[in-house]
Write a structure and sequence with these properties.
Elements: H1 9-63, H2 82-85, E1 94-98, H3 99-105, E2 124-132, E3 138-142, E4 149-153, E5 161-173, E6 180-189, E7 195-202, E8 204-213, E9 223-225, H4 235-239, E10 241-251, E11 262-266, E12 269-273, E13 280-288, H5 290-297
Antiparallel strand pairs: 1-2, 2-5, 3-4, 5-6, 6-7, 8-9, 8-10, 10-13, 11-12
Length: 300
């Protein structure tokens, strides 16, 4: 009878307590592993989008000012006015500034994000132009004009095509969070001559560019200027730009663990972000405008 009796109430309570302890440890370990995986996934996605946006802008800037076999198109006096210098005949290689200036020149739509629209964070605009062998309107040099000027032919009958892209920030509706978030867009010129905008990367919370100008024709930048400092530059000033320093602040798409408040130094200015559940990273790179540097080093 002693060998066949069941477990006592005390033994059952001890067994249940030990089982609950083991189960609790497994649940805690699972929750920590899931949060760690979510955080790592958010960081990986953040890295991919940040590097993609930085590399794309860098490659675009490196090509600016290349006009096929035409290295130094000649401008007339009308190109001194920046409102007319954006015309193709002035062969302006690159332009940068604030969204307010870009809207005045008609480069970006009215939906473009201004610097004071999003917690006073920079929202620069970058316009690049060059010739390539891709799709687009044919780029030629009209020698019948005095001085000879770049012109656009439609349909295309030549080897070089005109590429124009204007990069800016705007707010979009995010399906995951249900909120409006800032995103990097590009306004591109099609072969028909119309401009259309498309999204490049989402959750770009700040975009700033410092422009390096070569003032002594040695092929290197003497000083860098932010988007506000280039407001009164002329086409001749933009011709002397040989480098561009990009600052991009990206935010994770999905919420991770509670993150502390962060500060980033962007073009000599501190950007503060409050504590929340999003990861952020600052991407900084310097792109050499190879064609501008080549012309400057050779005194062209």
């Amino acid at each position: 009878m002693h060998a066949q009796r069941g477990a006592t109430l005390l033994e059952m309570m001890i067994a249940m307590a030990l089982g609950l302890m083991v189960l609790s440890a497994v649940i805690v370990l699972y929750m920590q592993t899931a949060r760690t995986f979510q955080q790592q996934h958010a960081m990986a996605d953040l890295q991919v989008r940040g590097r993609m946006a930085t590399q794309l802008l860098s490659e675009e800037l490196r090509r600016t000012g290349f006009w096929g076999e035409i290295m130094t198109p000649v401008r007339d006096d009308s190109c001194r006015d920046m409102s007319r210098a954006i015309d193709i005949k002035c062969a302006l290689p690159v332009w940068g500034g604030t969204a307010e200036q870009a809207k005045t020149l008609g480069l970006v739509p009215q939906s473009a994000l201004k610097s004071d629209d999003h917690a006073s964070r920079p929202a620069a605009v970058v316009a690049v132009r060059y010739a390539d062998h891709g799709n687009g309107t044919c780029l030629t040099l009209d020698t019948s004009l005095d001085p000879p000027q770049l012109t656009l032919d439609q349909p295309c009958q030549g080897d070089w095509h005109y590429h124009a892209g204007i990069y800016y920030l705007r707010m979009v509706k995010d399906d995951y969070s249900g909120e409006s978030v800032p995103a990097l867009f590009v306004n591109q010129r099609s072969a028909s001559g119309n401009y259309s905008s498309s999204e490049v990367a989402r959750h770009v919370e700040a975009l700033e560019v410092e422009w390096g100008r070569d003032d002594n024709a040695d092929g290197s930048a003497n000083q860098f200027y932010d988007s506000n400092a280039v407001a009164h530059w002329t086409a001749a000033d933009w011709d002397r730009v040989v480098a561009a320093r990009l600052y991009i602040v990206m935010r994770s798409e999905k919420m991770a663990l509670q993150m502390p408040a962060r500060e980033f130094l962007v073009a000599g200015r501190t950007l503060a972000f409050e504590a929340d559940h999003y990861q952020r990273r600052l991407f900084v790179t310097t792109a050499t405008l190879r064609n501008g540097r080549l012309r400057g080093a050779n005194g062209l």
